[in-house]
What we know:
Blueprint: H1 4-16, H2 19-45, E1 50-51, E2 58-60, E3 65-70, H3 74-83, E4 90-93
Parallel strand pairs: 3-4
Antiparallel strand pairs: 1-2, 2-3
Amino acid sequence: MLSAAEQAAIAQAKQKGDYWLVNLLGRQARGRFVHETLETLMRKKLPQLQYGRVGVDFFDPITSRSYEILSNTVSNIERHAKRMPNVAYRMIRY
Length: 94
């Protein structure tokens, strides 16, 4: 379910032989899909959560817990740790 722009970017990367970029763009697209699907589900089931596009993905004001959705790759986990070094959050990995 890639957008036309995503399909074009992947096709262009393939044409150039940039297979690392093909993989990266595919993972990013899957990540957006997972994030949007989970957010929709959690908004229905847990309406008390606060949702954000900057910083942590979800914050529960009742428990003061923060949640971050991320792919279960070493590089992504490291990137999140570097991006938010002073934030304690629970990882929702896929």
